[in-house]
Amino acid sequence: MSTPLAIRIRAVRKHFGDIIALDDVDLDIPTGQIHGLVGPNGAGKTTLLGMLLGLTAPTAGEGQILDHQLARTRAVPAGVAGFLDGPGLYPTLTARQNLTSSLALSGVRSNDDTVDEMLETVGLSNVAHERVRGFSLGMRQRLGLAAAVLTKPRLLVLDEPANGLDPAGKRQVHDVLTDLAARGTTVVLSSHRMDDVEALCDEVTILMSGRVAFTGPLAKLAAENDSLDYRLVTSDPASARRIAAATHGIHLRGADEGMAADPAPTRPLLLAAATPALDELVSRLARGGVAVRELTPVLSPLEAAFLTLTDS
Looking at residues 104-109, what average pLDDT do you find? Predict the structure, then answer.
């Protein structure tokens, strides 16, 4: 049985005068999925997120957001929450007052314990009674996320939620989003940080010039890459270089090209390979008694695809 869709849009276009921000966009996002939206500046990410939030209406096309048809007029669909260009907060109010005000405006019933628990979850309990105007960017991001989550949305839409976060803050945000998805909330987020997208998202959509260049699981994106660059560290660099040069589908990179016979270098080996060739290389190294101590992509599949599409 397939998972029901939280978002289904077809042939959506958005024009701002002569500028085409979205051009025949199709998108399906299942309920309970964390879906990443990436692309260069001007690709249409913010326009699409704004449409999901009901902040802008499509010029053409159709779709459904939760139980609502994609609106031709500006209206925030019931069950949807989130923010674009940073959360909207009251700078003269405290963190706690911001959350209680948000709940009052949304009409969601809550209590003091719920607010306190959320402040603890996002790591802001120690500044609960401080005014928001003194908060850092990362603190405001976490408070904005807390305000959105407290409204109990079925769809959460976030623009750059990890912006300004330190490692501890990023972990807290990741934990909140992962827990929401596990409980059935659909999360759509944009980010320029590929590591965040890969750590959080089940699937990803890459936008280029208002059109969908790719959409699907990250594993599919990796499979569609002809090859990736890898960094290889072994117990015997000279033997590894010789074996790699003799393995079909392995291409030595940079300074390693033409150096397969060099017996001395101890630096990591840089190579390009598709997954089948890489598997064969690892097998050959093992048979040759060469231990693999590190094998990591120089660029992740998502980042490699992004750069390929951007440069094309």
Answer: 76
